[in-house]
Design goal:
Blueprint (H helix, E strand, L loop, with lengths): L2 H12 L5 H5 L4 H6 L5 H14 L4 H25 L3 H8 L2 H34 L3 H16 L6 H25 L4 H9 L6 H14 L2 H11 L8 H38 L8 H12 L1 H34 L5 H17 L4 H15 L1 H11 L2 H4 L6 H25 L12
Helix pairs in contact: 4-11, 4-13, 4-17, 5-10, 5-11, 5-12, 5-13, 5-18, 6-15, 7-8, 7-15, 7-16, 7-17, 8-15, 8-16, 9-13, 9-15, 11-17, 11-20, 12-15, 14-15, 18-20
Length: 428
């Protein structure tokens, strides 16, 4: 960060009242984290949710986004108050075998994340430029690495780029809402009416949670806020927390609205006449005759931007997680290579791209409780957080969010093992 930016932030922290322009000085960490909530994995799960179940699973998207909002705020608070990121605190607080296990789980999550991001960006480029999927993945890798080199100039240029990409995705889906014939009444109803009609809906619901509440984003946010502007007093620390909470609410509200728009677009376009649409490629080809070439083009543009930008953020998170857990880092090109190799293997083996995307989101959901539990444990401890430890209400909400994710995972495991679930019909 430049001396000029640091001075401007210091001046803002010293003022009694801070205006909108001064608040923008502190924006960035939540914006970067929010791109993880609009990655290609979201496209895959949201298309299947909307096409297969109409508006019925909108409540899952809303609930997942609220959980994400809470945990991103807690992650940011951890970094601001302690000056450490979540992975570093895990290494300091837990026994070494636990730390290594958590690191291994996080690396699995990183590979699942890269699978989704690479697949999404590659599918978009392949459809747009009529190139093989593997070639699209290669282009995605090159563009991602080029963007990662911007980090050498400091975090502000990267935040501006990611912010612009997030804004573009949001505009794309705002346009889609004007094109698609959305039933707003039904959408509003099912946003607050919990329903899981069958076992297939459960799988998609778990995938939505895995695509929305991202393990690497929970780790990353604490690192983006640690020592960004080290507070010199409790007054400054409280101001930083207020700025952070406001940014989390704004950034993740945008991400949540984009996800809900994806489901509504898929429902409006496919559910009535084409509920079998379950793949991104099919969705793109079907959108042209149903909603016109404009809707299909907007869909592709948002998918490509999503894949590239989320791949950049995923690599940033991977570096931070590795350094925090085991105390070393590797060159950015090697980090990029290690996590994207499984994606190339999956595509080279001829696996269905969208099915692989859905599977990757289920893997993410299974790994997700690891950072969630650690974050709840740390942010409720006064020995770590002091007076900034979670209030009883926040603590209960965080525990409830973790229990919801664990419950969904247990239901999915039972379904996978063929155990009948009371009140949940099998997929038709």
């Amino acid at each position: 960060m430049t001396d000029r930016a640091t001075l401007a932030m210091r001046e803002a922290l010293g003022r009694r009242r801070v205006g909108f322009r001064s608040s923008l000085l502190f924006a960035g960490p939540a914006v970067i984290a929010s791109i993880a909530y609009m990655d290609p994995g979201n496209f895959a799960t949201n298309i299947q949710a909307g096409a297969g179940f109409g508006y019925l699973l909108l409540w899952v998207v809303l609930a997942a986004n609220l959980i994400a909002m809470l945990f991103q705020a807690l992650s940011a608070k951890l970094g601001i108050v302690t000056g450490c990121n979540l992975a570093e605190l895990c290494r300091a607080q837990f026994p070494r075998p636990v730390v290594l296990s958590m690191w291994a789980a996080s690396e699995v999550a990183a590979m699942a994340t890269d699978l989704a991001e690479f697949m999404g960006g590659a599918i978009g480029l392949a459809l747009l430029l009529h190139m093989p999927l593997l070639a699209g993945m290669g282009v995605t890798a090159i563009v991602t690495y080029a963007l990662l080199t911007v980090q050498r100039r400091g975090f502000r240029p990267m935040e501006i780029i990611i912010g612009a990409l997030v804004g573009t995705i949001g505009i794309c889906y705002l346009i889609e809402m004007f094109i698609a014939p959305v039933d707003w009444g039904s959408a509003a109803l099912h946003s607050v009416l919990p329903q899981l009609p069958n076992a297939a809906a459960l799988t998609i619901a778990v995938g939505i949670v895995g695509a929305t509440v991202m393990p690497h984003a929970v780790y990353l946010h604490s690192g983006l806020t640690q020592n960004r502007v080290p507070p010199r007093s409790d007054t400054e620390r409280r101001k930083l927390l207020r700025f952070s909470n406001k940014e989390v609410v704004v950034a993740l509200t945008v991400a949540g609205l984009v996800n809900m728009a994806m489901v509504m677009m898929a429902s409006a376009a496919f559910h009535a006449g084409h509920p079998e649409v379950a793949e991104i490629e099919t969705a793109y080809h079907s959108l042209t005759p149903l909603l016109g070439i404009g809707a299909a083009a907007v869909f592709l543009v948002s998918l490509i931007i999503s894949g590239i930008s989320s791949s950049v953020v995923g690599t940033m998170a991977g570096q931070m997680i590795m350094q925090g857990f085991v105390g070393f880092r590797i060159p950015i090109w090697l980090r990029r290579l290690v996590t994207m190799v499984p994606a190339f293997i999956v595509v080279g083996a001829g696996a269905n791209a969208t099915a692989a995307l859905i599977a990757s989101q289920v893997v993410l959901s299974l790994v997700l409780p690891v950072p969630m539990i650690a974050l709840v444990l740390f942010t409720r401890r006064r020995t770590i957080m002091g007076v900034y430890a979670n209030s009883r209400l926040t603590d209960l909400a965080a525990i409830a969010g973790t229990v919801i994710v664990l419950a969904l995972n247990l239901l999915l495991l039972a379904q996978t093992l063929g155990i009948a679930l009371p009140g949940l019909p099998a997929a038709s």
